[in-house]
Amino acid sequence: MLEFSTTSTLTPCSQHTFMAITFHPRPGQILVCDFSTGFKEPEMVKNNRPIIVLTPDYKGRTGLVTVVPLSTKEPADIMPYHYKLPKNCMPQIGRFQDNDSWVKADLIYTVGFHRLNLIRLGTRDPNTGKRHYYQSRLSRERMKEIYACVLHGLNLGSLSQHL
Questions:
Q1: Domain span including residue 31
Q2: Span 140-155, mean pLDDT?
Q3: Nearest in space to 3 (alpha carbons), one of 102, 98, 140, 147
Q4: pTM for this structure?
Q5: Domain count, the chain
Q6: Residue 39, Cβ density class (10 Å: 0-12 exposed, 13-18 middle, ≥19 buried)
Q7: 100 and 81 in contact (C-beta within 8 Å)?
Q8: What is the mean pLDDT of residues 115-125?
Q9: Mean pLDDT, rounded, of the chain
């Protein structure tokens, strides 16, 4: 299965500064989320955690998006709400190119745009000097598998046959 890849340019941000997105990301898009403020263990508390966008831009939910986090650590017990995302589905930079990732579909969050950022690719447009950002989306088939895992994470796995 092929995943498609595109790049885009946005206003540059510093390596150490978090510049939140100002648009609604598309379902299947992979971004990073800052869970470091406002959450307490055992909730997710890490910053720059990769996530997958689940929901489109719903009317009346301005500035909010529902996501599931990713981890490169394989679960001790693989459950129906876990999904192995091959490393070729991730941006081919840094930590993402070395390991497969695991969707943690039992940990569903609705977060504000202020927590989300695009993943920088480490390259710049030679004409404008603006940074390139990873903006690929996972395929519909792969998202169908992830949505099935989300249903299992909500104890609604029997509904996954209707996807």
A1: 7-75+84-138
A2: 98
A3: 140
A4: 0.85
A5: 1
A6: middle
A7: no
A8: 91
A9: 88
In a domain, 150, yes or no: no
CATH code for the domain in which residue 133 is found: 2.30.30
Distance between CA atoms of 103 and 69, rounded to whole angstroms?
A: 6
Q: Which two tokens stand for residue 68?
A: 């599931």
Residue 53 included in any domain: yes
Spatial separation of the C-alpha atoms in residues 89 and 105, rounded to whole Å = 17
The first and second tokens of residue 159, run together, are 């509904």
Question: Does residue 144 belong to any structural domain of this protein?
Answer: no
154 in any annotated domain: no
How do residues 31-40 score in pLDDT, each as one tens digit? Answer: 999 999 999 9
Q: Contacts for 14-18 with beta carbons within 8 Å, 24 or more apart?
A: 15/120, 18/47, 18/117
Closest of 93, 67, 35 to residue 146, by C-alpha: 67
- DSSP class of residue 29? B
Determine the pLDDT at residue 92.
84
pLDDT exceeds cutoff 70 at 15: no
Read off the pLDDT of each residue in 144-148 and give the average, rounded to a whole number.
Answer: 98
